[in-house]
Amino acid sequence: MSQPVNLTNRQQQVLWATIRHYIATAEPVGSEALVKDYNLSVSSATIRNAMAVLEKGGLLFQPHTSAGRIPSDSGYRTYVDQLIVPSQDLTHQVAHLLNDRLNSGDWSFEALLRGAAQILATVSGYITLITTPQTRTSHLRHVQLVPVDSSRIMLIFVTDSYETQSALIELPLSADAADIDADLLERELQILSNFLNSQLRGRAIAELATLDWSELDREFERYADLLRTILVELTRRSQPPPPAQIVISGLAEVLRQPEFSELQQVQTIIHLLEEEQHQLVPLIFERSDLQKPGSRVSIRIGAENPLEPMRTCTLISSTYHKDSVPVGSVGVLGPTRMVYENAIALVEAAADYLSEALSS
After folding, report:
1. Fewer C-beta within 10 Å: the chain N or C terminus?
2. DSSP for 149-194?
3. Residue 184 CB: number of other CB atoms within 10 A?
4. Helix or strand or coil: residue 98?
5. CB 137, CB 325: distance < 8 Å
6. Which residues 6+ apart lie within 8 Å of 19 measured at CB?
7. Segment 16-30, tens digit of pLDDT
């Protein structure tokens, strides 16, 4: 995940207002518009100075020399990570809407997915993507951490079906890592391996990345970041096979957005959705390293998406569960100029609804 950007309160207010205005209008934003439409209690010159600082920091840019400014991917990332809270009112409204319109007792689960996708697409105005449930789960049998050198370790783990996987992981150590005692490192990794086995043996691998180890015993506290990296790597290396399909709805809605007015871009998105679902599934189902600690959603903004057709888009997704095990995902795909507070709330509400329907 990217490092937080340190902004003054004034700069945060100006960035927030600029992005809100651009989301609403799809037009470059000038200082006069912010003075008129937002109660920032400062002069136009002060706002221009703040916007210049934000542009220098890579959070805003000018599409044309004489134009106002628009958010960059980094600007949206700062906005999402630091400046907004998902709409709880919308979460409750969508939960009621799903419960009122869909009767989980009378519908097949696939019909529920289609109905939920249509509702989310209509409410959000974005493309909705829901993976069908993947019920095969692997459980962890054994894990071992082996030192490779002063800055890397090998993660080796065995599943309940005796499948063995391994991965190299960088140690988040200090600048004097080269001077670390090799015997000490080996002893500490053995202690950490024993701790992991005692905590994780028998658990479904798919649920490991959702564990919160923010409060650890003092002896393991300095390994908190490494433990989180290990959990993510375990789930990534042992992903279940791709679900049979993705339920897709809302293409007509998103085509009304000005970002999709060019035929070429629309064609690449349609090709991805129809012909390249095998590439899309892992992005929706896998928890992202761009996910905030404690957050239930994964958010990939613009160039953070590895697939070229999606690099002008944002993908917001969250897993739904059978009991405590993640088996599928709900996502919305739309332009980076997205109402993030609402999109996050919609995805969370749908994931909760599907989890309840599948576990009841």
Report:
1. C
2. SSSEEEEEEEETT--EEEEEEE----GGGGG--HHHHHHHHHHHHH
3. 9
4. helix
5. yes
6. 71, 75, 76, 79, 83
7. 999 999 999 999 999
- Tell me which H or E stretch contains 60: strand 60-61
Whole-number Å distance between alpha carbons of 354 and 319:
9
pLDDT tens readout for residues 180-226? 677 888 888 898 899 889 888 888 777 776 676 665 556 566 677 77
**Two tokens at 257?**
């957005």
Q: Which of 37, 100, 103 is nearest to 68 (CA)?
A: 37
Question: Tens digits of per-residue pLDDT, 52-110?
Answer: 999 999 999 998 877 799 999 999 999 999 999 988 999 999 999 999 988 766 678 88
| Higher per-residue pLDDT: 178 or 186 | 186
Give residue 105's pLDDT: 65
> What CATH code would you report for 9-83?
1.10.10.10
280-302 exposure pattern, b = at least 16 Cβ within 10 A, e = fewer: bbebbbbbbebbeeebbbbbbbb
DSSP 292-329: PTT-S-EEEEGGGSSSGGGTTEEEEEEEEEETTEEEEE
**Measuring CA to CA, which residue among 154, 147, 149, 155 is closest to residue 178?**
149
Q: What share of the chain is helix, strand, coil (3-state, %, to 5)?
A: 50, 20, 30
Q: Which residues pair with 65 in a beta bridge?
A: none
Query: Class of 88-135+242-359 per CATH?
Result: alpha beta
Q: Which helix (H) or strand (E) holds 338?
A: none
pLDDT at 128 over 60: yes
Q: What is the token pair recorded at 210?
A: 């959702």
pTM of the model: 0.74
Largest CA-CA distance found in the chain, in angstroms, rounded: 67
Nearest one of 314, 252, 301, 246 to 275, comparing CA atoms:
246
Fold of 140-237: Enolase-like; domain 1 (3.30.390)
Task: Please give the backbone phi and psi of residue 100, each rounded to the nearest 5 degrees, phi first.
Answer: -75, -40
Residue with tokens 């080996």: 186
